[in-house]
Amino acid sequence: MAEIRVPTLGESVTEATVATWFKKPGDAVAVDEMLCELETDKVTVEVPSSAAGTLEEIVAAEGDTVGVDALLATISEGAAASSPKKEDKPAATKAEAKADEGGKTVDVMVPALGESVTEATVSTWFKKVGESVSADEMLCELETDKVSVEVPAPTSGVLSEIIADDGTTVEAGGKLAIITEGASGSASATEKPAEKPAESNAAPKGKDVENAPSANKIMAEKGISPDQVQGSGRDGRIMKEDVMKAVSAPSTSAPAPASVPRGPVSADDASREERVKMTRLRQTIARRLKEAQNTAAMLTTYNEVDMTAVMDLRNEYKDLFLKKHGVKLGFMSFFTKACCHALKEVPEVNAEIDGTDVVYKNYVHMGIAVGTPSGLVVPVVRDADTMSFATIEKKINELGARGRDGKLSMSDMQGGSFTISNGGVYGSLMSSPILNPPQSGILGMHKIQERPMVVGGQIVARPMMYLALSYDHRIVDGKGAVTFLVRVKEALEDPRRLLMDL
């Protein structure tokens, strides 16, 4: 007989509330399978099974308050194996049954998601339960705030169970699925989907999620509806601290998808609309851009540049450049070099505010905004100020291709000190780019368009481009912003200045 007791709950925490039991007496359990969830004042603690067998007795029911090391339940070890009953066996252990028939089971886990990223959403499963998989074959795709992560199969076999369905939020290191090695995928492909909804281990969805007992109590006392509280527990479960935040937070701090409520829509119009949930990437883009507007004293200054010199130089050397370096000579390397040159003269544009300090960067990590099917991402060319034209072009091409293919990692998009955004590739003639916080400056490039210009007293057609520098006026004065943009203009209109550091 194995005893399940309350684990250590953390420093100065002596008791917890039993929030949810995932198993019932008589259910078969496996080693490390989650039995119940405990709720403390600060965190939610999952209690795993210390042995395989049958859950004999639940001592502490849901809602009970228990101390550290208190008895929660007892397990009869080996009982499930001695008297198997197919009709009584929970669906969660069917993967183990397949293991007995075909081979051992292998867990598919959530991979490392990147620095400071702790959770992701299961975007798409490429395989169904019962299908055969090969080692390294892509099983599913996870979506984080920044990137999409593909999860390969760790071994060959049959996908015997999907634990986290599409749309489920999972934590780094969590379990996604189970693969049975050596099993055949022909017999189980049709039977499993029908049994999936009845799994006792399946996470409750939507309105079936049970909130923490203490949370329900406080909501009842305060007269708060669950719709007014954002749950932080598993599957959106509302915890005690979530209710306390909703009670204490001012109404202006509550996140809202739109600043103005949607107006009434006729039934005819509604039938012709399509409602699609925003991806985590799009939600993050919206949140960060709005934060930039709310936090920074953002201002934009404009200028225009005659692109004749750059275009002539590019046309003259593009074939030799491609032959020697294996990459085309584009405009981005000129703009990157020009910005690096200007940032040395106006270092506050390459700085950021940290509390009451200004952090000046003695390097240039250049963010290059890239449009992808999923949204705008900003991969970073590190130490761009030390790179040659060829190295910059190669790095931009590499990051751009990975961005379009959804292969960028979190490290590829962290640490930028300044950003360049090229709206001209989409035909934009002029715009005001929004800062990429915590950076203090972003340069907007635009469409090259022939316009009449006065040169030497004569009106001639010149390829002109509008430039826009958005900057944080808290740290960058108007003089510094104008000086920066003038230096970029001078370097592009006479690229020889870059070679002579003028």
Supply the key terms:
OB fold (Dihydrolipoamide Acetyltransferase, E2P); Chloramphenicol Acetyltransferase; 27 strands; alpha+beta; 502 residues; 7-stranded mixed beta sheet
Task: Output the CATH class name of the domain at 285-500.
Answer: Alpha Beta
Helix/strand/pairing class, anyone? alpha+beta
Kindly state the mean pLDDT as a whole number? 79
Q: Strand tally, please?
A: 27
Which fold name corresponds to the CATH topology of the domain at 285-500? Chloramphenicol Acetyltransferase
Principal-axis shape: elongated
Instruction: Tell me the radius of gyration.
Output: 29 Å
CATH architecture of the domain at 285-500: 2-Layer Sandwich
- The rounded distance between the terminal residues' Cα atoms is 81 Å
**What portion of residues belong to β-strands?**
25-35%
Considering the protein shown, what is the CATH homologous superfamily of the domain at 285-500?
A: Chloramphenicol acetyltransferase-like domain
Number of helices: 12
InterPro entries: 2-oxoacid_dehydrogenase, 2-oxoacid_DH_actylTfrase, Biotin_lipoyl, CAT-like_dom_sf, E3-bd_dom_sf, PSBD, Single_hybrid_motif, SucB
GO molecular function, one term: dihydrolipoyllysine-residue succinyltransferase activity
Cofactor: (R)-lipoate
Family: Belongs to the 2-oxoacid dehydrogenase family.
